[in-house]
Structure formats: C-alpha cells, structure tokens
Design goal:
Elements (H helix, E strand, L loop, with lengths): L1 H4 L7 H11 L22 E3 L3 E6 L1 H7 L8 E4 L4 E3 L9 E2 L12 E10 L2 E9 L8 H7 L2 E3 L7 E4 H14 L3 H12 L11 H19 L46 E8 L4 E2 L23 H8 L13 H8 L5 E3 L1 E7 L5 E9 L5 H10 L9 E6 L2 H4 L3 H5 L13 E5 L10 H7 L14 H9 L3 H4 L4 H21 L6 H26 L3 H16 L19 H17 L10 H22 L7 H28 L3 H11 L19 H7 L4 H37 L3 H35 L14 H5 L23 H7 L11 H43 L11 H31 L8 H25 L1
Parallel strand pairs: 5-7, 6-9, 10-15, 15-16
Antiparallel strand pairs: 1-2, 1-3, 3-4, 6-7, 8-9, 10-13, 11-12, 13-14
C-alpha cells in the first residue's frame, strides 16, 4: 500500500490511477466526429459503460449492438460531458418469444416494463410474440431471463442476475431486501431527483418465489410429476453426509460390530432469543410456500397442536437458577408472535437437521425442545445410541421419556435407542458441580473430542438476519430461515472441510494427541499400586456401563457434602428437646440453638441495614421512613434476643451495663454489639457463658461459613451464565442497561456473602484458634472473590497437586474436595487425576476412530446422492416438451457431477495428506453380490422345482 500511495519518495501510483479514472469521464482518444462502429461521420456519439467505455458509436450502431442487451447503461456526449440516456429513449424495442433472434410480425406492445437489474432499475419497451404458437407473456419473460412479478400482464420484472446477486448477498452478508432495493435506486439516480416508481413490494414477492423455486430444484422436485404441489416432511433439506444413516452409509453388520460409539449420533439443542417475530400477519394470509418440507416446523401442524396442549408448561431453568433471571430481564413479549426459536442439529458437523427448528411462543419450555429433539431423529430410529447436547440437559432429561409419550407416535424414539444427555463444554462451568460430574461432555464414553457447542456457532451465523425477519409475516419468515439454514448446511458440506482440510487437520491432530495421551496415561498408571489401579478401573468401567442407574457410584462425583446451617440447627434442636425429655432442665422458652439462631439473624439484618445507610447521596423521604421502620423492628428483635441471652450468657449483663454507662451518645441499632460468645476472650468466655454454649456457636459458625461459600459459588455461576446469555441473546441499550443492573444485584449478593464468611471465620478464630475447621475454611482475600477460578469440571484442566494449588481457587476446592486428603492419604489426590488422564486418553482415541469412520461415510453418502440425482434425469411427467426434459436432464447431471466432484476433491486432499480412507465400494459390492447370489439361488430352486 505504501508503494501504491507513493510514500517514501517512490513513484506515486495513486496519482496515476486518479488521472486514469478522470480520463474515463471524457472521450479519451476516440475520434470526436466519427462512429467507431460504422466509421461514418456523426456528431451525436454514444458509449456503453459495460461493453467498451472508451468506444464511441452512433445511435444506429448502439441500437444494433444492444438489441439483446437492453439493460446496459448508455451515455451520450453533449459537447462537454457524458449524460446517461436510456436505451428505451433511443428507440430500442425488445422482441420476445422468438429464441432464434427473429422478430414477431404481429407483436403485442408494452411500452413500459420496469426491470430490476444488478446495475439499477430500467424502463424497457417490450414486444411480446403473438403468433399462433406463442406462449404466455410470463413464459416469454422467463425464457429471456426476466422473472415476472405477476402471472398476468406483468408490469415489473427482475433479472435472474439481480435475483442471484441478492440471494448471494443475503446469504453471505445477511443483506436485507430493503437495503438491496435502496442500492438499486442509488445506482439508478444517485441524486434522488428522478427516483423510479416504487417497486419494493413486487421485488419482495419475486425474491421469495425465486428462492422457493431454487429450494425445490435443489430438492429434486422438478423431476416429479407434480413436485411443486406436495412435500414430504423435511425432504428439501440438505443432510449431513458424515452422520450415520443406516440405509445409506453404514455397513450391513454395523449393529454387531464393536465400538458402537462410532455409529452414535450427537444432537445439539438450544434456543435463540434473537430470532423474534412481531405480529405482522398470520398463517392464513401469509403461509409458507413449502410448509414442513424444510427446517422450520409448521405451527399449524402437529408442532403447534403439541405446544397448545402444553400451554401451561413453565419455562425451563438451570440448576444454578439464574437463567430465569436472564430471561426476565432480556425478553419483552409485548407484540411478539414468537420470542425466538429452538433448534436441533448435528453436533459434530454443525449441520441443521430436517424439521428441527421450532418457534418459541413464550420462553424455552420442555414441550418445544421435546418435539424438536424427536423430529431431528425422525428418520434415524434404527440407530442404537444418540447423545443430546443441551446447556440445560440436567433438567431437560428428567422425565423426558414420560413426556415423549405425548408426542405423535411416529416421532417417539424406540425403546431400543439409548439416549445420553450431556452439557456442552463451555456451559458446564455455569452448572453446579453435581451436574458437571454427571453430564460433562468430556467424561461421556464414546464422545471423542466433541465440545457440544456447535449450535452456538450456528446462531452466530444466523442471528445476523434477526432484524429483517423480525418484521416478516410467519410464512415469509419461515421460508427465509429455511433458506438461511440450507445455505449454512451447504457451507458446512463443502468445508468438511476447506474442501476436506478441516477433517484432515482434525484427524492428524487427533492421531498425534492420541499417541501422546495414551503414553502419558500408561506412564501415570505404571507409577501407581496395581491393586489401586485395578480397583479404580473396575469402578469407572462399571459406572460407564451402567451410568444411568442411581445405585452405581460415580467416581467423578467426589463432592464434599457440607451440612447447612438449617440442617445443623434442626439436628441441635432435636438433641436439646431429647435432653429435656430425659430430665435436663429447661432454662428458657427459647432453646440455646434458637437463641444463637436469633443472634445470627440479627447480625445479618444489621449488615444489610449498614449497607443501606452507608451509601453515598441523600436519602429520599420514603427511603428514610423505610430505614426507620427496619430499625424499630430490629430493636424489638434485639430486646427479644437479650431476654434469652441473659439466661445462657449470665455474665453478659455486667458487660452490657458497663457499655451503657460508657456510652456518651446514642448509637444506631445496626451498630449495637450483640456480645456473642465469640466476642469474649477465651479466659473470660467460660465465666460469661453457660457450659456448652460456645461450642454450639462454633458448630453453627462452621455451617454458616459453608453456606456463604456455597452462595458465593452460585453467584459466580450465575454471573457466568448471565454474561454468556447477555452476549449471545440480548441487544439494545435498554435491555443491556437492565441486564447490567441485574449483574450488579448478583455481585452485591456475592459480596454480602463474602462479608458474612469473613465475619463468621473471625468468630471461629476466636472460638477455636487453629482448629480442624481451618483446613477447609481458609482466609478469604478480595482476589479470591474477584477471580473465582476453577468452577468448571474439565478433563483438559489438570487439578492442582502440591505446588500447583495456586492455580485453583480454594473456594472451588472446598466444594469438590480436590487437594484435600480425606480417604487414603496422599493417594486419594491422584484418583481424580488418574480418572481425568484416562478420560483424555480415551477421548482422543475415540476421536481418531470416529473421524476415520466419518471420512469413510462422507464419500459413500455423496456417491449415494449422485446416484439419486442420476435416477432423476428423466421426469415422471411424460407430457413435458423436449426442451423442458432436456433442462431436467441437464440439471440432474449437473447436480450428480457436483456430488462426484466433491468426492474426488475430498479423496485427493486426504490422500495428499497421507490419509487412507477405506473404500466404501467394498461392502457395497459385497451387498450387491450377496443379493445377486440370493437371486440366482432362488432361480436354481425354481428350476429344481420344475
């Protein structure tokens, strides 16, 4: 660029280019008074910007050369500059109907036909053929490459070039029809003075019809007798060639082979709340042109009826509980026909499944996801295993089989099919650790290196058209999304990848990592006691075989279960009641545990009240009144607490009296010291408190600390979920402002529990300095709160041992027990690392096997598709003309050649990369030979019978 711009004293090419562009504004070196075509003298000269910008010709030559190019832009030299002049004004008349180039001797004239072309909007005078053998005007226009906006007396057309250009732009750049039409107006008249008559609505109609026709052509409907009138569910969808299809790309004995995971299908489920739709029309006035034949489920069909039957169903929720908050803050249902979509797709290859995108009527509900998940597997009931990757799989999988019984019978999954739920890798840290160790993608046997996040990448591709589809009617929106998903599938097909390279690179990497991880795991195992490894292996293999049975212990679930404060209080109260029943004296109506619980409650209320009064700014009258009411209520609770405290802590009376005498000015109720047992020095505590009372406080303080840590972890998971949801699903300043307010609320709750933990831990330090509790309940720094690293369960993240403990926040270690030797001394710390090492080794080995199988399936499926197109070379409608039959044959041959070209390209790239792919023809030919042999045996048997 510096060279072109002439920087550094070099030749200035930019100046040269500028002069050349300006030169094109003039006549250049053309003769100023002679036609470059006929060489005759002529004062009025013209040029065509597309044919030859520097060639000047006369009017007669211009009309002759543009008899079949009526949409070129012509400019006339007026003596000092070029001015645009339409060919229509020069007298050009376009004759249609005679494909040999001749003119009809008795034409019908249309003086003004508006044509939308890729270079602007044009007025054209047309002469339609009116001979005895003439076809309707719409067909004459189509055969000339102009698509009519109406079927009778069309006044507006769009060229096929313009429709193809818009189609390419809207698929790749998500350009709206309005933006494209405005661009055509700009190209026609940039000054905005002679703006063409508005043709926006006809243009919308034409592009919708055109892409519907492309959808049908690419689905092979042109070869059927009445293909444009009837559709089978999902038949127009471009399917994933790498996924297992029993009748197409699997060997005959696949059900009996080992490693059944290579024949497993993985489906990703998720909702997108960006693809909303306003109430602009209804199904009756704006139906889809191919209902149910693409990706979108028909709201007027079984899907709509199923959702209607479950209208009272509530939104789904995650185990961390913050998804509902995110939805409440981000979605506004007012005026919306649907609040988004839920979809299912191939998780490994990111190709959307047929009939697997459904509208959401109100949030994300089980009924929507159930229907979509089952329709995605409509044609795969022969498969033995299927995995559902869903960010809320832990909730959705519960009672799924029971809910499935309410679906249409043809959609219900067979009992022979095993369903495996899994949580995508990036979403797992947002779940509680119990869910992560049960549903994490990396510990599911047979999953290879699938991350489960495929659908998020698809949403990133599709959500760019959210603004344009929001205003569409239901039919237009469904057809548009079908078109977008079909294009997405095509891109994924040809990039399986980078015409083969993605698949090749994945396999090369997988083979390398498999060797490495297997070696590391073997080395790890060899340094452990053999009996320990045998016991660990037996446990993990049992769980992998029977992981859905509750009685099978999950080796990954090394979760430390802490007693909550509520559970401890209940246990201690029951013990106190039992002691009274056995003869112990009852000193007060409030038992000791109840007295301490009331004191803890007052402490938390004091903390909350201090947060309200310590803020900046002046309180309003309402806020001041509210604080005063809370102070009065808190004062009453303190008086109630004192009545029982004086019984269980008789020595506190003197301390309270001395404090009252020493106080010179009154203090607010939130600043009053309660004088719990932990507030006294150890040498004074025994004389102030009744026996056993400080021990009870210690026991409850430990549970308070654990509860505070649990609440902090939930807040952190909630913040992660909320941040991801806001990034992916929300848009607009108002929504983002509300979201930020909600995030601050969650952060305030986290900080509140952090202060609670510090307060309770200080009490424990005074009650039992250096006690056993201090091993787990460590000092909480602000850095621990701000960066709570380690909440996710990932087999690729090594849990710290020894010196590596700094990498994992102890707050999470307190939850999982990692780094805390509680079972077998130091060997217990290795158990989880050994399990994760084994998982890494197995997953990489599985990835190699799955990729090799997928690379075998891809050519088989594409060749099967080519054969399918070969069978459609001849139309079922024998009454068609020879010209249409030839077009059908040519299109089918082109599509078959495309499939085989991809097969050749894939194989060439794989072989160049040193990858040998098993030839699918081996077992195909075996099948054919077996069938032929069976046929011959039957013939021989018939002959013997005769």
């Amino acid at each position: 660029m510096d060279v072109w711009a002439g920087r550094g004293g070099t030749y200035n090419f930019a100046q040269e280019f500028l002069y050349e562009l300006l030169r094109l504004k003039g006549r250049g070196n053309c003769p100023p008074d002679a036609c470059a075509g006929c060489k005759q003298p002529e004062s009025d000269l013209y040029r065509c910007r597309k044919c030859a910008p520097s060639r000047l010709i006369c009017k007669a030559c211009c009309l002759s050369e543009h008899a079949t190019k009526p949409l070129h832009i012509i400019q006339k030299w007026d003596g000092e500059k070029f001015v645009r002049i339409p060919l229509q004004r020069l007298g050009l008349r376009v004759y249609l109907g005679h494909e040999d180039g001749s003119k009809c001797f008795m034409p019908r004239t249309t003086e003004r036909l508006v044509i939308i072309h890729s270079n602007g909007i044009h007025d054209v005078s047309v002469r339609y053929c009116n001979c005895l053998q003439s076809v309707p005007r719409r067909q004459q226009l189509l055969r000339f490459g102009w698509y009519p906006a109406t079927v009778r007396l069309p006044a507006t057309c769009a060229t096929l070039d313009a429709l193809d250009l818009f189609h390419a732009l809207t698929l790749n750049g998500k350009l709206s029809a309005y933006a494209f039409y405005k661009s055509m107006i700009y190209l026609t008249d940039a000054l905005g003075i002679k703006v063409p008559k508005k043709r926006y609505q006809p243009f919308l109609r034409m592009i919708r019809q055109y892409r519907h026709l492309l959808f049908m052509m690419r689905g092979g409907k042109g070869s059927e007798r009445d293909g444009a009138s009837h559709f089978e569910p999902g038949e127009l969808v471009l399917r994933c060639p790498a996924c297992p299809i029993p009748s197409v790309n699997l060997p005959p004995d696949w059900k009996e082979r080992v490693n059944q995971y290579i024949y497993r299908k993985t489906i990703s489920l998720d909702a997108c709340f960006r693809l909303t739709n306003l109430h602009r029309s209804n199904q009756a006035t704006d139906p889809s042109l191919h209902p149910g034949a693409g990706f979108m489920l028909d709201d007027a069909g079984d899907y709509g009826l199923h959702v209607l039957k479950n209208a009272s169903q509530k939104d789904m929720n995650t185990c961390s509980g913050f998804r509902a908050i995110a939805h409440a803050d981000s979605k506004n249902n007012t005026g919306l026909r649907c609040t988004g979509v839920v979809a299912a797709m191939c998780s490994r290859h990111e190709m959307v499944s047929p009939q697997s995108v459904g509208n959401l009527q109100k949030g994300e509900r089980f009924c929507n996801s159930d229907f979509v998940a089952c329709t995605a597997l409509r044609d795969d009931h022969e498969l033995k295993e299927v995995c559902f990757s869903y960010d809320i799989a832990c909730q959705w999988i519960k009672n799924f089989l029971t809910r499935m019984e309410t679906l249409p019978e043809e959609l219900q999954l067979p009992q022979t099919m095993e369903t495996m739920p899994a949580i995508p890798k990036a979403h797992a840290p947002c779940h509680q650790i119990e869910c992560q160790v049960e549903y994490a993608m990396g510990i599911q046997p047979g999953m290879g290196r699938t991350d489960g996040e495929a659908i998020e990448r698809v949403w990133a591709f599709v959500r760019m058209c959210a603004a344009s589809i929001k205003e569409m009617g239901p039919g237009s929106r469904a057809d548009t999304l079908d078109d977008q998903f079909q294009f997405h599938n095509w891109c994924k097909l040809i990039n399986l990848g980078n015409t083969g390279m993605i698949t090749l690179k994945r396999l090369v990497k997988a083979r390398k990592q498999s060797l490495k991880q297997v070696g590391l795991h073997e080395d790890f195992t060899n340094h452990l006691p053999a009996d320990t490894v045998s016991r660990w292996t037996e446990g993990i293999e049992a769980w992998e075989r029977e992981r859905h049975h509750a009685e099978i212990e999950n080796p990954y679930a090394q979760v430390v279960k802490h007693e909550t404060e509520g559970q401890a209080r209940y246990r201690m109260r029951e013990a106190e009641r039992l002691a009274i029943e056995q003869g112990a004296p009852r000193l007060h109506d409030t038992l000791p545990t109840g007295c301490l619980a009331l004191g803890f409650s007052i402490e938390q209320q004091q903390q909350k009240l201090r947060l309200l009064t310590d803020g900046e700014g002046t309180l309003t009258q309402g806020q001041a009144s509210d604080i005063q009411r809370k102070r009065e209520a808190l004062s009453r609770q303190i008086r109630l607490f004192r009545s029982s405290q004086l019984v269980y802590m008789p020595g506190v009376a003197a301390r309270l009296a001395a404090e009252t005498v020493a106080r010179r000015v009154p203090i607010d109720v939130e600043d009053q010291k309660l004088w719990m047992p932990s507030d006294f020095d150890a040498n004074v505590r025994q004389t102030v408190c009744s026996p056993g009372f400080p021990a009870k406080e210690k026991e409850l303080r430990i549970t308070q600390c654990n509860d505070a840590l649990h609440a902090m972890r939930d807040c952190e998971r909630g913040l992660r979920t909320y941040a991801a949801f806001r990034r992916d699903e929300t848009d607009g300043q108002a929504v983002l402002t509300r979201s930020q307010s909600s995030i601050k609320t969650i952060e305030a709750r986290r900080d509140f529990n952090a202060d609670k933990y510090r307060h309770c831990r200080r009490a424990l330090e005074r009650l039992d300095p250096g006690g056993a509790w201090s091993v787990e309940l460590r000092p909480l720094r602000q850095a621990d709160v701000n960066n709570m690293t380690g909440g996710g369960f990932d087999i690729d993240v090594l849990m710290p041992l020894g010196e590596g403990a700094a990498e994992l926040s102890w707050i999470w270690a307190n939850e999982t027990g990692h780094g805390i030797d509680v079972v077998e001394g130091k060997i217990s710390g290795c158990h989880m690392e050994w399990l994760k090492s084994r998982a890494r080794s197995n997953r990489w080995t599985e990835e190699v096997n799955v990729l090799e199988e997928e690379m075998r399936r891809i050519p088989v499926t594409l060749e099967e598709r080519a054969i399918w197109w070969d069978a459609r070379r001849e139309s079922e409608n024998t009454e068609l003309g020879a010209d249409i039959k030839e077009g059908i044959r040519a299109y089918a041959a082109q599509q078959a050649a495309t499939q085989r070209t991809l097969v050749g390209a894939f194989r060439a790239i794989w072989e160049a990369g040193g990858i040998e792919v098993d030839e699918a023809e081996d077992w195909n030919e075996t099948n054919e030979a077996e069938e032929q042999g069976d046929s011959e045996d039957e013939d021989d048997a018939d002959a013997d019978t005769e």
